[in-house]
Amino acid sequence: MGLDRYASRFVSLGIVCVVFDYRHFGQSGGQPRQLLDINLQLQDWDAALDYTAKLEDVDSERIGIFGSSFGGGHVISVAAKDKRVKAVISQCPFTSGLYSSQTVGLVPLLKLAVLGVRDMLFSSKDQIVTVKLAAALMNAPDVHQYRQLVPPHLQPTFPDYVAARFALHIALYNPGWSTSSVTCPILFAICGKDSVAPPAPSLTYARNAPKSTIKHYEHMGHFDIYTGDYFDTATSDYLDFLKSNL
After folding, report:
1. How many CB atoms are located within 10 Å of the residue 186 CB?
2. Where would I find the Serine aminopeptidase S33 domain in this sequence (predicted)?
3. What is the 3-state composition of the chain as percent helix, strand, coil, each rounded to the nearest 5?
4. Assigned domain for 138 exists
5. pLDDT digits over 17-29, tens only?
6. Cβ-contact 155, 60 below 8 angstroms
7. Residues 112, 214: one domain?
């Protein structure tokens, strides 16, 4: 989903980059597939930090983390409690489940809730009730751009869905509430035309972080920042931040 492009930029500074798939996704294990469990994903972040800190070429006193969209929320949560983290980049971050849920609309939310209950009650390790990432969990006009992040060779087989039970938990996850507990330097890259992660609450939360750097890209939408000139603009800012803080 384009994380390799960011890793390549960071490696240009001599930074060791560890990129991982959450359990139930990509090349990681876990059944059923496409299960997005917030607590399990946060545990995967802990495991990734444990692994990275033990690598021979890594200075365990200079570990930074990068996350985008939902992962942009996770890195806030992780840095708020794990003081091994010395720098954070949170890109177009999911900071408020309450506000992000409102972008979907009331009727679609009710439909998602019904599917979520069905998934919780009737699924197994081999079969889940699914919801589309684009057009269901994200239904803004620009979400079609989501597919451009999938590498061409994976397009035919890419699973564009998750287990529906995720819809029952998303509104209760509010990483932005933890920004005041992030004591290390943190860069918030906030897209001004973000239709998935509303920028207004993210800007408010970002100001609560004691050592925050806020980059407000007013003309970018949620998916613009991953490619083209916008990607170059953002990653240039990220490299400056990492040079100064890591």
Report:
1. 27
2. 5-222
3. 50, 15, 40
4. yes
5. 999 999 999 999 9
6. no
7. no
The pLDDT, as a whole number, for residue 135 is: 64
Indicate whether 8 belongs to any domain. Answer: no
Please indicate, yes or no, if residue 17 is contained in any of the structural domains: no
Task: Judge whether 40 and 34 are in contact, CB under 8 Å.
Answer: no
- d(CA 114, CA 146) in angstroms, rounded, equals 25
**Domain span including residue 227:** 63-96+178-246
The three-class DSSP label of residue 88 is strand
**What is the SS3 assignment for 163?**
strand
What total of structural domains would you count in the chain? 2
- Kindly report, residue by residue over 191-239, the tens digit of the pLDDT: 999 988 999 999 999 999 999 999 999 999 999 999 999 999 999 999 9
The half-sphere exposure of 143 on its side-chain side, counting CA atoms within 13 A, is: 17
Helices within 25-180 (DSSP H only): 38-53, 70-81, 97-102, 106-122
Of residues 38 and 102, more confidently modeled: 38
